[in-house]
Amino acid sequence: MSIVSPPPALRHLGVAAAGFSAVFMPAQARAHEAPALECLCETLPFLDTATTWRAAAMAPAGAAAGDPAASPESEIDAQRRIIAEQRALLDRQSAMIAEQGEQIAKLQQQIVTQQAQVDRLSSFALAEAPLDIFRGTGMGGVGGQGVGAGPALPGPGSDAVALPDAPVGEAPPPSEPPEQRVAAVPEGQGVLTRAGELFFEPSFEYTRSSTNRLVFRGIELIPGIQIGLIEATDADRDTLVGTASLRYGITDRLEAEVRLPYLYRNDRIEVVQQRDEGIVRQIALREHGIGDAEFSLRYQFNRPVGQKPIFVGTLRVKSDTGKGPFEVGYDEFGVATGLATGSGFWAVQPGLNFLMPSDPAVIYGGAAYLYHIPRDVNELVGDALIGRVDPGDAVSANIGFGFALNPRFSFSLGYRHNYIFPTKTEIGDTNQKSNYIHVGSLNFGMSYRLTQRDVLNLGFEIGVTEDAPDVSITLRMPFGGK
Asked: How far is 216 from 228, CA to CA, in rounded Å?
């Protein structure tokens, strides 16, 4: 039997086919078709491919290190696992978003509830009725005539709203009560004493005034040549006043006050007269004693409503307990040899003051009229008989503001002006009338709270007109209260 030897090209084609089948045929197909391959190898012995086909059919799955059928399988499993993890993460995030949406809805409902209560409280705060009558009534009204109970705020541990575990933001600075802003205002301009409270307020006041006057009594022939009397007066006056005051709150709107001053005066006067020859006289006078006692009432007409002004009416009565100007001695020339510690006349002073809160300050002001009651003096001053004397009345007005820098310190700035009418005096058979006087002064006050109850006040008054004292310094400190 002759053996047919295939050509080399055909032999190479069989080897390539066997290699292609081994590479691209799946492992399962190779397992099932192994007999077919063996038959194919035996049938085509001339291709000399039996060994190659048999090795491909018998090779296990994944034996090769770079098996292309096994690598895609592992990558798909990894991608499926990642997709499953991402889907679980999305589910959890969706649940969290739903929970946060429920919390936002609860917070919005709580904001609506709180806004309703704020509007309700604002309506009560702006009402004319005092807040004291609503305390303990739950905003339900007075005398059973309710205005409707508002929704209650949730207490600690309530499920009405999810509260944060830690403080959020910064707390607003505490607002100063009006008592702190008006503590430094001038005396008599502050708030009233509460009902049933008694205050003792000592004060010390120092006043310095000086005058320089040149008086010519005669005629002037030509400029520089004068015939008559030339008199120059230089006077320096120092006054120290210690006052004891008692204030008592009769009601929340009515206050009574009693003041008793004690004065110490020291005057130095130098008089230069030029007639035929120059005459220089120096006078030093000192005096101390009780001054004019005062009694006053203050009534608050309206209650504070928002930033509207509060009006307070005053009525002050001044006695003549001090030594009057006609009770001191005089020499033959009519020059006083002593000093007065009082005016010598009774006086009544009605007035109206106001306080207007204007955060962060308080504006104050007022006006008053001082009426002096005239009387018959019937005293000799030198060689002249003084009959009926009608002291000049006075109109005064002031305005300013108080400002609290912190809960302990406050200050005030203001201006006060007094217009004093002429004084009418009956001297012998003639009636004399003095000139009117303008007294204007700038006021500056400071207040420092030592404790919750004790406040130290220091005030300065600086004269800005010719007839006003140069400077006045007042120190006062109230004691008492609850």
From this structure: 7
